[in-house]
Amino acid sequence: MRKFLSGILSLLLLMGLLPAAYAEEPALGVTYEIFVASFQDSGGDGIGDLQGIIDRLDYLQSLGVRQIWLMPIHPSPSYHKYDVLDYYAVDPSYGTLDDFDRLTAACKERGIRVILDLVLNHSSSSHPWFLAACDDKFFSRTGETTDWYVFYPEEGNARHKISGCSWWYEGQFGSHMPDFNLDSESLRAEFAKIITFWQSHGVGGFRLDAVTSYYTGANASTADFLRFVCETAKANDPDCYLVGEAWTDEATILTLYESGIDSLFNFPASDSTGRFVKAALAGKSSTVASAQADWNARIRAVSPASVDAPFVSNHDMARARGMLRSKVPNEKAAALLYLLMPGVPTVYYGEELGMSGSGSDENKRLPMVWSSDAATQCKAPAAADQAQRLTDGVAEQDSDPDSLLNWYRQLIALRNLAPELTRGEMTALDGGNDAICAYTVTDAGSTVAIISNVSQKDTLTVSLDVLRGAELLGCIGGAAFADGTANLPPLSGIIVRLP
Q: Would you list the domain boundaries of the chain?
């Protein structure tokens, strides 16, 4: 594999597609996921676009996020764009490649890296590659792209018939999304070109879509392909950050970490059944620290350089507000927990405002609420059957010090005071109360302690030997620290650096 990869990169260098050097990427921190079409429209057509994101960089910087993850931006026949028509272009409704270059440049000036959603499991059934492959009526696999897809001479599960002949193709996500043959060396060479192309346009990381579908049920093969993608990207840019979507159980996720990928989203801890939401609703978080410390240790045992990617909700899930019973204190409690966890947490756009949405996928991707003025919104996806309330947008929450938006700002700012939280080793502490989430994180010889109170009614005091002589880095929710003792009002927390 390494010999094959080296050959690809040498070829790209000779072709002038591999930049001689990449600028150092901004430090990792909190990621902010954006569905471009629903974020900010700059052209008056009601569709969010890349220039709209540029226009809102002041807002993103005020949140303190270090990465923005753009859901797919390539030309596509669908609204969500996970069925790609051209991997080297920007969908015209979103802008141009020049717009993308301006976005990555503007982000780097602000210390924000751009993470691109990369769909390598399948393409659109209208992609020229697939159409050319289907023209090979004998499927001899000698055509340039015939070997790039998976064809069968008989029916079967997730197989779709090709019109005019007795052949079928694999499409796990439907007939409009034919699956790639990821064993094809020429296809892998094409993927390497795609990765390098976008890195040359300022991309600092990739979110890998649907990785458990690469080789369904064959985890070793999936890990091997992930290893190829990671080695390709990091050969160009050692700081490139790669995170995979593996919506599966812990055992499978750990197997996929054998690839050496930087992160895999922590799906078992997310959603309404995950530990962050359950702890926030119960006001009991003492077991969260031990569970997360154990999970981080298991990741580290498999891949020492990898880190967790905690989150609560994303574009495929009901929004966090509904999970948390549409109550701001519950939303604040969940954020207090997961945004201070080690690794690279992800916030879904609008989560910081308490946006709602459930049911169909379109309802989970409703327009960002900038103000109570509907004219500031993008158009909702056509099939959405829910509407977003317009009473608590950015403009309305911005000036309220107790708003959910400002809670997120304060939390992320607090987190950014402790760089140990990105790659550090986590150890759970006994905070002496079920409402206390307490732990230390150590990286490069430096250790910080995080003590949080998720109770919504009780002020709690935490005194631990490990806190003696510690330096207060920051606090939230009126918390205070002196002489090794933390005084924690309801929904509050501190970060201290240990001596």
A: 2-122+185-416, 128-170, 425-497
Nearest to 166 by CA among 200, 140, 201, 138: 138
Nearest to 217 by CA among 257, 249, 178: 249
Instruction: Please tell me which residue in 25, 49, 179, 245 is annotated as part of the active site.
Output: 245
Q: Is 109 among the residues known to form the active site?
A: no
pLDDT at 4 over 90: no
What gap in Å lies between CA 331 and CA 454, rounded to an integer? Answer: 11
pLDDT for 9: 42
Residues 159-163: contacts with CB within 8 Å, 24+ apart? 162/134
At 146, phi and psi to the nearest 5? Answer: -60, -35
Q: Rounded distance, CA 214 to CA 221, Å?
A: 8
Q: Write the DSSP string, 40-57.
A: --SSSSS---HHHHHHTH
Q: How far apart are CA 1 and CA 10, in angstroms?
A: 14
pLDDT value, residue 389: 86
In angstroms, the Cα distances linking 358 to 320, 388, 399 are 10, 11, 28
- Residues whose CB is less than 8 angstroms from the CB of residue 116 and which lie 6 or more positions away in sequence, other chains included: 69, 70, 73, 198, 203, 205, 206, 207
Q: Does residue 209 carry a catalytic annotation?
A: yes
End-to-end CA distance of the chain: 46
What count of other Cβ atoms lies within 10 Å of the Cβ of residue 74?
Answer: 23
Q: Per the residue annotation, which of 209, 308, 351, 362 is the catalytic one?
A: 209
What is the tens place of the pLDDT at every residue in 62-86?
999 999 999 999 999 999 999 999 9
User: What local confidence, expressed as pLDDT, does residue 139 receive?
Assistant: 60
Decide the pairing of beta strands 113-118 and 205-208.
parallel
- Apex CA 56: angle with CA 40 and CA 322, to 5°? 60
Which residues, in sequence order, are CB contacts of 445 under 8 Å at separation 6+?
none
- CA 19 from chain centre, in angstroms, equals 26
The DSSP output letter for 126 is T
Q: Which CATH superfamily is domain 2-122+185-416 in?
A: Glycosidases (3.20.20.80)
Domain 425-497 in this protein, CATH class: mainly beta
Q: Is the dihedral of CA 345, 350, 353, 354 positive or negative?
A: negative
- Three-state DSSP class for residue 120: coil
Average pLDDT over residues 276-280: 99
What Rg, from alpha-carbon coordinates, does the chain have?
Answer: 23
